[in-house]
Amino acid sequence: MKNLKLTGHKADGRKTIVEVGGLRIGEDLVVIAGPCAVESEDQLVRTAVAVKEAGATMLRGGAFKPRTSPYAFQGLGLKGLKILDKARRETGLPIVTEVIDTRDVSWVGEYADILQIGARNMQNFSLLREAGKSGRPILLKRGMYSTLEEWLNCAEYILAEGNPNVILCERGIRSFETYTRNTLDLSIVPAAKAMSHLPVFVDPSHGTGVLGLIEPMSLAAVAAGADGLEIEVHIDPSQAMSDKDQQLSPDAFKRLMRKILIMRKTVQELAKDVEP
Ligand code: PEP
Ligand code: MN
Questions:
Q1: Would you say 218 and 226 are in contact if contact means Cβ atoms under 8 Å apart?
Q2: Which atom of ligand 1 is nearest to the CA of 142?
Q3: CATH fold of 18-274, please?
Q4: Is 215's C-beta closer than 6 angstroms to any atom of ligand 1?
Q5: Taking ligand 2, which is a single-atom ion, which protein residues have CB atoms under 5 Å away?
Q6: Statement: residue 276 has pLDDT above 70
């Protein structure tokens, strides 16, 4: 791939480590968990306490939701960000939240520890440039119709503005298959890591949209070498205002977390085994 001047491997072969709230992303396995959207203080804070207790290391929650329909719940905006801040103070978990508008990047960045750029905005080049100037780490989701080369070039836009802290996140691509919401492309994990020094995450929630597939795909993502996961968890999934069918209950997430940690340990053991 041409012109991946900053995103392609460094001359010294070193991987990027993104430091956020004491975490070393790219080194420690990081699990970002939380609801699709921030709906109320009660919903978010209770979910945050539950995911922290289960072992999540970061909290997610959208205050600005990029919805297919303009009539669907669009998120609480500033009120949602203030609720995220409260949950961070109560749990100590750093916050990942999406920004969808170039005009909002700098002030949303004041609330977020990591700014998320969603799949629908992956190639919004003005948003990428603003994200590059924000000084905040960026979680860049793969567009649902985007190739690895296009995705890495989008990361390049952010790095080219002087922001080295980019995390890639696979979240499924469109295919002919309708059983799953998207087709989770786990082969992109080792492929992206072979091309770039940036950490690579996987979102099995949007990647499958099917509750029963989140656990096997989370474990498979870790086995494939993912540096972290982003998983939707809601205190009461049946009442969720968006993505109701793919949000785990806190109990299901707790069971999953245990298995994720076992898988991570196994992967580390395997890596030791093949070292010469
Ligand atoms: C999200 O993570 O809230 C989201 C909207 O995901 P994606 O951009 O991958 O659809
Ligand atoms: Mn969602």
A1: no
A2: 9
A3: TIM Barrel (3.20.20)
A4: no
A5: 36, 243
A6: no
Please give the pLDDT value at position 185: 98
pTM more than 0.90 = yes
- 149 Cβ contact partners less than 8 Å away, ≥ 6 residues apart: 1
What would the two tokens of residue 236 be? 């009461």
Confidence check: pLDDT of 275 > 80: no
**pLDDT at 60 > cutoff 90:** yes
Helix (H) or strand (E) holding 250, with range, is: helix 250-274
> SS3 for 173?
strand
In our burial notation (b when 16+ CB lie closer than 10 A, e otherwise), range 109-124 reads bebbbbbbbbbebbbb
Q: Is the pLDDT of residue 54 over 90?
A: yes
Give tens-digit pLDDT for 107-153.
999 999 999 999 999 999 999 999 999 999 999 999 999 999 999 99
Q: Which ligand is nearest to the CA of 243?
A: 2
Nearest-angstrom CA–CA distance, 137 and 114:
5
Q: For residues 230 and 169, is the Cβ–Cβ distance under 8 A?
A: yes
